[in-house]
């Protein structure tokens, strides 16, 4: 029985070590039947159930004091259809492992986030994205999936089967059931050439449309307390792998120095603007180039634990929002902001709880690092940022920190009540809710 596989005394923590919990029982099932038995046990004991993957979300969306199902043992590639360029996988597969398998078949995902040590179902469930105005969030690459509901029923979802549910479950927040398998649309393997070069915030904002047209995967990094920007173009190429990166960064010297300086700045916050400008001049003030397989260019190593916010705003509000954030920091010298503010773009989609629902969007990602695990003051920065994001019609990334409640989401999402109706029908007792989701739906 599945009950025999549940363990008590397990402590869960997310990657950033900003949230943790002690579930009553921790499960690592290997089949849909085992998950069905776990759900039956939860119904008998009136317990909540939370499904987790890689645990990378920098929020408490994965936390529970009930039953926790970790999907790491359901990680197989089930089918590769080279003719359709599609792959069917179990929900717990890490994208890093999937990338390796796709390489073997001459296939790739057309877009990936910065981190691939994340599970496929979790990636889509939280609305994970990258950049590229021609590309949607990662969930738009899902062409079908199977969902195990709270009652133990298995549903096949696609645009032609349970179509309304399909547009809900592609960003599911873990509250509609347990995703078992996904079929993803792929493309042929491709190389990306990444070029980065310095600019200024005003210049980038004044020429935003031009940048969006010039590069398929355009993004930029703004260094707060300065005008400094690093523009990053990533585009398909036939060139072989090559790099012009620095030994200073590749061998970790830069990371070590940065973390040391950020740690000192927790005692002397006035150092932060200087640190931002120093590292821009050291690492980003010159043109750099790098070519490799697409997933190796999309991905980069997150070495520092961090607090993160990331909101999607209407693309036409990009300039207004960034200039207002810059002005807010200039008005209050006591509020410091670590670099970078990462600005990315994504195409609109029909997914009910996608931050890009029915509109092309700009994502503004802000961070505060935790040097050597030390927390840093961030409340005033966080609140100023959220105020601006709400003012321009923003929607928060579901996996990242925010202070929004149901009243906010009903304003932000035209289809929010439609999603709630689907959730209440599939899970009337709230088996899949936790404290994070209670704030979203109640």
| Mean pLDDT value | 94
- Let me know the largest β-sheet: 9 strands, antiparallel
Q: At the first level of CATH, what is the class of the largest domain?
A: Alpha Beta
Low-confidence stretches: none
Q: Strand tally, please?
A: 21
In DSSP terms, counting alpha (H) and pi (I) runs of 4 or more, how many helices? 15
Q: Bin the helical content.
A: 25-40%
Radius of gyration: 22 Å
Going across the major beta sheet, what is the strand order?
16-17-13-15-14-19-20-18-21
Number of domains: 3
- The N- to C-terminal Cα distance equals 34 Å
CATH superfamily of the largest domain: FAD-linked oxidases, C-terminal domain
Globally, the shape reads: globular
**Share of residues in strands:** 15-25%
Task: Record keyword descriptors for this entry.
Uridine Diphospho-n-acetylenolpyruvylglucosamine Reductase, domain 3; Uridine Diphospho-n-acetylenolpyruvylglucosamine Reductase, domain 2; 21 strands; about 450 residues; nine-stranded antiparallel sheet; five-stranded antiparallel sheet; Vanillyl-alcohol Oxidase, Chain A, domain 3; 3 domains; alpha+beta; 15 helices
Describe the structure.
By secondary structure, the protein is an alpha+beta fold. It folds into three domains: 2-70, Uridine Diphospho-n-acetylenolpyruvylglucosamine Reductase, domain 2 (2-Layer Sandwich), CATH 3.30.43.10; 77-188, Uridine Diphospho-n-acetylenolpyruvylglucosamine Reductase, domain 3 (2-Layer Sandwich), CATH 3.30.465; 191-396, Vanillyl-alcohol Oxidase, Chain A, domain 3 (3-Layer(aba) Sandwich). 31% of the residues lie in helices and 24% in strands. The protein contains 15 helices and 21 strands. Strand 9 and strand 10 (154-158) form a beta hairpin. The longest helix has 14 residues, at 32-45. The chain is globular, with a radius of gyration of 22 Å.
